[in-house]
Amino acid sequence: MRRRDFIAVLGSAAAWPMAARAQQPALPVVASVFGASREAVCGPLESPCFLYSSTPQSVALRKGLSETGVVVGRNVTWEDHFLEFQYDRLPAVMADLVRRRVAMILVHDAPTAIAAKKATATIPIVFELGIDPVELGLVASHSRPGGNATGVHWFPQQLIGKRLELLHNLVPKAVRVAVLINPSNVIAAETQLRNVQEAAPSLGLQIQILNAATIGEIDAAFATIAREHLDALFVAGNGFFVSRTVQFVTLAARDRIPATYASREAVAAGGLMSYATDAAGGFRQVGVYTGQILKGAKPADLPVVQSSRFEFVINLGTARALGIDVRPQLVAIADEVIE
Asked: Helix 110-119 to helix 90-99 angle, to the nearest 10 degrees?
């Protein structure tokens, strides 16, 4: 063999593995879109996020994925997108995901879900929402979603009513209750406001609605509570409020305000009580549906899972600091008691 021919053969052989690698298909991309900030979802900036963090929701999501044989980095690529509560960015974010033809879009609140549904009728959408997806036009029905969306639906009306009832039982002398809502997520704010107004009269509670969408407005809300001598505080569920947990707990302790929260994390940080959805169970189901759809299942054939499991958590140390005598009956029904 001539030297020139030999070099040509070597060059061709060396190119074979490179060509084979170039022909391997790219992994499907799952884009998880949060209306909230990274801090609200994952904690401090140095914390891993979201799928890779140690939060119960993240652990449960990974468990659900693994149950279907899906491993991030091996057979799927994962992207987290945080809108930082700037919902005007939604059209551009969704248009980019559609242009790149991601394999699936995960959404975690009503505005992102609606934007995803408007952006595509073909890319599968998996949601976890506290607002009825039928009312939002995401699915035809819970049992037969139809279309390209399915997921998990919490029950906020039952949740809000029960949380008010537990607050009333824990602090029976509290009659005038401040309800703090973030108006920036209009759909969620209207739903929460309607639910709390329906639940309060039967408990004999007088509610005063306060709005807050910034750190300063949270401070102003506490100033109003103190000035008007309101008896207790109901903090509505909201990603921004979760990111300000330390602020809430600090101000409530300073002003000696009994407060109820929508997340266990607030109680672990020193809040009085929470009554919240079993977020871990919901995220596990999101992981299962994500894996099943990646394996070929159709969202139209996967019924919306209606999660009705809630967790009641009390911080006895905070109760003692506020001079609240927690009745044994409440301790007995609590899912977790923090000393």
From this structure: 40
Residue 112 neighbours by CB under 8 Å, 6+ apart: 33, 34, 35, 83, 90
CA–CA gap between residue 258 and residue 319 (Å, rounded): 8
Cα 173 to chain centroid, rounded: 33
232-235 and 259-261 as β-strands: parallel, antiparallel, unpaired? parallel
Residue 323: left if φ>0, alpha if ψ -120 to 50, beta else—which one?
Answer: left
Q: Provide CB contacts within 8 A for 90, sequence distance 6+.
A: 83, 111, 112, 115
Phi, psi (deg, nearest 5) at residue 160: -65, -45
Going from the C-alpha of 282 to that of each of 133, 176, 279, the distances in angstroms are 15, 33, 5
The strand ranges marked E within the chain are 29-34, 77-82, 104-107, 125-129, 149-153, 176-181, 206-211, 232-235, 259-261, 273-277, 305-306, 310-315, 336-338
Starting at the earlier edge strand, list the strands of the sheet with 125-129: 77-82, 29-34, 104-107, 125-129, 149-153, 305-306
* 336 within 8 A of 275, measured Cβ to Cβ: no
Would the CA dihedral through 200, 203, 208, 212 be positive or negative?
A: negative
Residues making up the chain, counted from first to last: 339
Contact in structure between 318 and 268 (CB atoms under 8 Å): no
Q: What is the pLDDT of residues 249-281, one digit of tens each?
A: 999 999 999 999 998 889 999 999 999 887 788
Among 238, 259, 270, smallest CA distance to 339 is for 270
**Residue 117 · residue 109 · CB < 8 Å:** no
Domains and CATH numbers, the chain: 10-153+278-308 (3.40.50.2300), 156-277+311-338 (3.40.50.2300)
pLDDT tens sequence across 165-182: 999 999 999 999 999 999
**Does this model's pTM top 0.70?**
yes
